[in-house]
From TrEMBL:
Domain S1 motif, first and last residues per copy: 37-115
GO MF annotation, one: RNA binding
Transmembrane domains' residue ranges: none
Organism this protein belongs to: Thermosipho africanus (strain TCF52B)
Cofactor: Mg(2+)
Alphabetical list of InterPro entries matching this protein: NA-bd_OB-fold, RNA-bd_AU-1/RNase_E/G, RNase_E/G, S1_domain
Gene3D superfamilies to which the protein is assigned, alphabetical: Nucleic acid-binding proteins (2.40.50.140)
Keywords attached to this entry: Hydrolase, Magnesium, Metal-binding, RNA-binding
Protein's name according to its UniProt entry: Cytoplasmic axial filament protein
Recorded GO CC terms: cytoplasm
UniProt KW Magnesium keyword: yes
Pfam families reported for this sequence: RNase_E_G
Length: 465
């Protein structure tokens, strides 16, 4: 499988995409601040016994939500406290970014992740990634995890990237993570004010740690500063991917930009003529599979199976691409054959292995619906780049102002050399978002902006020579 990691630096922002066999499967933008993984000294604002939960002030816009069950017993023992009281300080970590009206979800079972290990100071449980299937390799890594845990007094989970790795790299990382933990716990004990105590070193480090796997065959970037960091991560790769540095927009170069509009499509057509329809609500995501046009030469049950089987790959691609989290219900076309249902589940399990996020399959319901949950920790590119439609009043989606501005900036930067003036026609809802000074930074032209365009999804641009 060809797998390409694309890094795209635009001004002060970094985006990444993953392309597998010429298909875009992941897309991430750092324009929204990511809180997940950050560790804070927080202050308990309110203990709600009816919910078995605590609201914690971590210095962000909204208080975080912490379930009592997410405070390990070892936490109480370590800090010599019997209960968590209002007004007391607390060491917590964000496990899920705020979404909509909800604040960040928190845990006191904090962890620090490396490339090969995750360490938990308030846990004694050790483990090995479920994605490592070889029993011999699992036993080898369990032995390493137990030794590290016994020597340091914290829980250890071995990550997928450690599979087949020389143990010296794992032990070396354990020393680094232990030093970070010691600093963190020492700072928490000394300090009193609400503050962030730990965050990722940098976004590029996070991306390379989490996404530069041994399956990657090529890395493309438009920032020469990335090269040294990339090479650092590649030192232990048995087969190193090709690195390519380009001028200009990496997403344009790799055709990633052409997929942006796909992110807001409700209906996606399958190669055989079937389709999937994605509907997202506050509570869950529902995906409907339709055969639409039966394939010639097949009966109804054969068509149902073929369409469902084909839909599985696209559905799990869309879950990754849109970073859909929470409860997902898939309404496949009805199949009478248990054998065919099992084949669909086998295909589902095959696709799950490609996803870095944790997915739990609950199986088919009596109504033939497939239930699953997907863990998501950060905002999706979809959420960053769509807005509620001002025309339909929220029953559909359009590109957000940020998305349209991105397209306008790209047009301006590629303006004809002889252009002196430009006329831009936009929908009235863009009035509060466009700024001539921002346009002039891209190219020093005379700009005429008219809010007379009737379609909120598009714009018109005309050059005057």
């Amino acid at each position: 499988m060809e797998k390409i990691l694309v890094l795209n630096s635009i001004e002060d922002n970094l985006h990444y995409a993953i392309i597998e066999n010429n298909k875009l499967v992941e897309l991430f933008s750092d324009e929204e601040k990511k809180l997940t993984g950050n560790i804070y000294l927080g202050r308990v604002e309110k203990v709600v016994n009816a919910l078995d939960a605590i609201f914690v002030n971590i210095g962000e816009k909204k208080n975080g939500f912490l379930r009592i069950k997410d405070i390990p017993e070892k936490y109480y023992d370590y800090f010599s406290v019997k209960e968590i009281k209002e007004g007391s300080k607390i060491l917590i970590q964000v496990k899920k970014d705020p979404t909509g009206t909800k604040g960040p979800q928190l845990t006191a079972n904090i962890s620090i992740a490396g490339r090969y290990l995750v360490v938990f100071p308030f846990s004694n449980v050790n483990g090995v990634s479920k994605k490592i299937e070889s029993e011999d390799e699992r036993q080898r890594l369990y032995k390493i995890a137990n030794e590290i845990s016994n020597n340091n007094g914290f829980g250890v989970v071995i990550r997928t990237a450690a599979e087949g790795l020389n143990e010296k790299y794992i032990y070396s990382e354990a020393i680094t993570l232990k030093e970070k933990l010691d600093d963190l716990l020492s700072n928490f004990k000394r300090k009193r004010k609400i503050q962030i105590l730990y965050t990722e070193e940098s976004l590029i480090d996070y991306i390379l740690r989490e996404r530069l796997t041994k399956e990657v065959t090529q890395v493309i970037t438009n920032n020469i500063k990335h090269i040294e960091v990339i090479r650092k991560y590649l030192k232990i790769f048995p087969k190193r991917p090709k690195i390519e540095i380009i001028d200009g927009d990496s997403f344009e170069y790799t055709n990633v930009n052409k997929y942006f509009k796909e992110l807001i499509k409700r209906t996606i057509t399958l190669p055989s003529g079937g389709e999937i329809i994605i509907d997202k609500t506050e509570a869950l995501t529902v995906i409907d599979v339709n055969s639409k046009h039966f394939t010639k030469g097949l009966n109804q049950q054969e068509t149902a199976f073929k369409t469902n089987y084909e839909a599985v790959e696209e559905i799990f691609r869309q879950l990754r691409l849109r970073n859909i989290g929470g409860i997902v219900i898939i309404d496949f076309i009805d199949m009478n054959s248990e054998e065919n249902k099992n084949k669909i589940l086998e295909k589902v399990n095959e696709e799950i292995k490609k996803d870095k996020s944790k997915i739990e399959i609950f199986g088919f319901t009596k109504l033939g619906l497939l239930e699953l949950s997907r863990k998501r920790t950060i905002k999706s590119f979809f959420e960053n780049y769509v807005s509620t439609c001002p025309v339909c009043g929220g029953s559909g989606f359009i590109q957000s102002p940020r998305f349209l501005l991105k397209e306008i900036f790209a047009k301006i930067e590629n303006a004809p050399k002889e252009a002196k003036e430009v006329i831009i026609k936009l929908h009235p809802y863009m009035k509060n978002y466009i700024d001539k000074s921002e346009l002039k930074k891209r190219k020093d032209l005379n700009y005429h902006i008219h809010f007379t365009h009737t379609d909120p999804k598009t714009f018109e641009i005309t050059w005057k020579i």
